[in-house]
User: Which sequence fits this backbone?
């Protein structure tokens, strides 16, 4: 999905936190976004995700304004993921359920993604009891499982150990290559944005 941002301004009260004249996020590419704390990275992702509609300016998705069909094809993984008080399995299955995928295919897809991310051991656990890093892995699995056209990642590996980072980065790259899904990844890790990003934006 191609994102075009024009004359975007975002205010909290009368404080301007975003001012972007023009930005194009290329289709099928991984765009890394870096920048200091408080520069508006999360705010920008929330706006692109359609979660924050209080802004001035124009954003198009493949040339169209945001609608239900587009919203269904994108997802955001938050800095602090929110998981339901259910099993990890049910959490990862959820986006497939709401998209009307049948039970058997759901099960196949869930098992496939937990295997890829090497988190099979978490599947029966209660999601709200997971550690910070485990929650991030599950949140990424829940995002990748339905193969979105646009994947928005807000510091997805901030709580992850180095070995697991390697696994998650591998799967993010594979997702992009295999499905041609567009990825925006906010990260404080410059090395990570270099490893993953076709393009890096410094905010
Ligand atoms: N709901 C809100 N009300 C008022 N100000 C807010 C609100 N949310 C964020 N801000 C302010 O807007 C600015 C941008 O916040 P944002 O969370 O987008 O930063 P960020 O670049 O994601 O930072 P970090 O690297 O710490 O995650 C910050 O100064 C923050 O304090
Ligand atoms: Mg942030």
Assistant:
């Amino acid at each position: 999905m191609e994102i075009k941002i024009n004359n975007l301004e975002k205010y909290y009260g009368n404080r301007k936190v975003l001012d972007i004249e023009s930005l194009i996020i290329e289709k099928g590419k991984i765009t890394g976004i870096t920048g200091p704390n408080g520069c508006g990275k999360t705010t920008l992702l929330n706006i692109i995700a359609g979660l924050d509609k209080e802004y001035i300016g124009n954003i198009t998705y493949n040339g169209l304004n945001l609608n239900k069909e587009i919203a269904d094809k994108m997802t955001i993984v938050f800095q602090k993921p929110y998981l339901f008080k259910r099993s990890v399995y049910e959490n990862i299955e959820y986006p497939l359920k709401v998209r009307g995928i049948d039970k058997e295919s759901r099960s196949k897809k869930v098992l496939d993604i937990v295997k890829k991310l090497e988190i099979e051991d978490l599947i029966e656990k209660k999601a709200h009891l997971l550690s910070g890093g485990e929650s991030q892995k599950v949140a990424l699995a829940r995002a990748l499982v339905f193969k979105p056209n646009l994947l928005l990642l807000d510091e997805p590996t901030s709580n992850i150990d180095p070995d697991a980072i390697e696994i998650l980065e591998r799967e993010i790259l594979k997702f992009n290559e295999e499905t041609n899904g567009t990825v925006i990844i906010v990260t404080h890790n410059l090395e990570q944005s270099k490893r993953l990003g076709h393009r890096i934006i410094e905010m």
